[in-house]
Description:
39% of the residues lie in helices and 15% in strands. It has helices at residues 19-25, 48-61, 76-88, 106-113, 126-142, 161-173, 188-197, 213-223, 248-261, 270-282, 300-303; strands at residues 15-17, 32-36, 66-71, 91-96, 117-120, 147-149, 179-184, 202-206, 233-235, 292-296. It folds into 2 domains: 15-45 and 156-313, 3-Layer(aba) Sandwich (Rossmann fold), CATH 3.40.50.1100; 48-154, 3-Layer(aba) Sandwich (Rossmann fold), CATH 3.40.50. The model has no long low-confidence stretch (mean pLDDT 94). It has a 6-stranded mixed beta sheet with strand order 1-2-10-7-8-9, sandwiched between helices. A 4-stranded parallel beta sheet has the order 5-4-3-6, sandwiched between helices. By secondary structure, the chain is an alpha/beta fold.
Amino acid sequence: MPALPTALASWPTPLEPAPRLARALGLGEDDLWVKRDDLAGPAGGGNKIRKLEYTCADALAAGAQVLVTSGAPQSNHARLTAASAARLGLDAVLVLEGDPPPTERGNLLLDRLLGAEVVWAGEVDAAGLAAEVGRQAQRLRGEGRTVYEVPFGGSSPLAAQGYVDAAVELEQQAPGLEHVVVAVGSGGTMAGLVAGLGAERVLGVHTGAVEQAEEIVAGLLAGMGVVPSVPLRLRLDQVGAGYAALTDPVRDALRLAARTEGLVLDPTYTGRALAGLVAEVAEGGIRAGQRTVFLHSGGLPGLFGHPDSARLLD
């Protein structure tokens, strides 16, 4: 594994108590803590930066001049890839699903501000998006550039080591923790936490970013040489009508976090994760007296670009 040539954020991120939110969920006021990976900069912060410390180290070791990656139109990973490239003196090409919107808001605005080239892939499936990444990488190589392809969502067995690091932080900050609740997009964050903490302590909440989330997380773990001793804990009930849709439970969760703790979440990832935590407590899977950590994985810029953001105030 390559040494990290440069840090892209400051560690450890804070672990903050959330007593009012805990009471609202039916937990004890000392039971719930928030791991603030949304504060891990640059450019709006978020969990992807832990992964990018590893993938960018690998890219620099390979002599890369340009990073190419892919994602949804409001991809947090794409934003942080652009920011990491800027910090390291590299170029970035972001291949995004769909067509150009009439106005650039949220993460898209930041992508352009950070100097990334944005390429729109049209209405494609996962295979079509990957094919467009390959075409862009071939174009750049044809121009004499050294290209490093960062996987969708930034998740790979190498990148997931960033959340093994986070697991070490959590063990130090919250000894005896029993549950960590995390949104599952491309799977690397959950895989790293499972590798570091064990599958019994990590509850993933599927966001609809990929199909077959359990298989993807399991595949990443296998690539890390990790075989969980118990089945993965993964809630699949918060996707609703799809990845880009705002559901009523997620809207309620966003309001609850904001109005109890001043904690702002996003509709796609952290809002779904909190809705999953609400459901898990209601069903008895997480109980009062159990030390629980909610991973705030960031995504705030995506709130301002979400098509249903106005519904948060309905």
